[in-house]
Amino acid sequence: MSLATLTLSPEFGGTTFGPFQPAPIALGSDSRRCQIVLSPQLGVRPVHCYVTPNGDGSFTLQLGEAGVGLYYYVRARGQAQPVRSVTRLQTGDAFALGSPGGPRFVLGIYQEAPAPGVGGKGRRGLPTAGQMGAEVKRQMSTELHRNKITGALQTYFYRLSSGAYFQPRYILAGAVAVFGILATGCAGLLRLVAELAGGGS
């Protein structure tokens, strides 16, 4: 049986979530309603979107709430296309939450294979050590993404490493901030000099 997996892009940890049973998968910041939970600091809404299997090997991507930022990439690359209605996904396609630079997931398929056993019969229901390790990693990654501080740090690191902070708007904002700090400091220094000069006369 083919089951869906969703893998975060490397800059957000590269964690693979799933495999998921053939039912709608909710992504968002609300742990009570979502199977994949991310920090709202990443621009993620309580129920941001759903990925739903169609039964023919394809999936659909749809908004969880009106007006959320959701972007679709064919084969995980190329130009980001904003999602405004139900969009068909194939294995290898990707989508980003919040903004084109937000957490990006790549859709994959997990092929379930029986574990080797005596007489060629596999033992079902018992996870292997590798599966248990993958699940522990997934749970830890989910908790890190839900935490506001680590979520914000990951966002800042991603924007810095991807060069997003070198866009003109960030450069202009930084220049205004530095000018404001220097102007405030110079004004305070001039006031101190004037007070000293006035006190000496």
Determine and state the CATH class of the largest domain.
Mainly Beta
The CATH architecture assignment of the largest domain turns out to be Sandwich
Number of domains: 2
CA-based shape: elongated
Gap from first CA to last CA: 91 Å
What's the helix-strand series?
Answer: EEEEEEEEEEEHHH
- Average pLDDT, all residues: 79
Profile the largest sheet: 6 strands, antiparallel
CATH topology annotation of the largest domain: Tumour Suppressor Smad4
Structural class: alpha+beta
In percent, how helical is the residue content?
A: 25-40%
Q: How much strand?
A: 15-25%
Tally the helices: what do you get? 3
Q: What is the topology, as strand order, of the major beta sheet?
A: 2-1-11-10-7-8
Which parts are unreliable, with pLDDT below 50 for 5 consecutive residues or more? 118-123
What would you report as the Rg, rounded to the nearest angstrom? Answer: 24 Å
Walk me through what this model shows:
With 201 residues, this protein is α+β, with helices and mostly antiparallel strands. It folds into two domains: 2-117 and 125-160, Sandwich (Tumour Suppressor Smad4); 167-200. It contains three helices and eleven strands, in the order βββββββββββααα. It has helices at 129-146, 148-162, 168-200; strands at 2-8, 16-20, 25-28, 36-37, 49-53, 59-63, 70-73, 81-82, 87-89, 94-97, 104-111. The strands form two sheets. A six-stranded antiparallel sheet has the order 2-1-11-10-7-8. A five-stranded mixed sheet has the order 4-3-5-6-9.
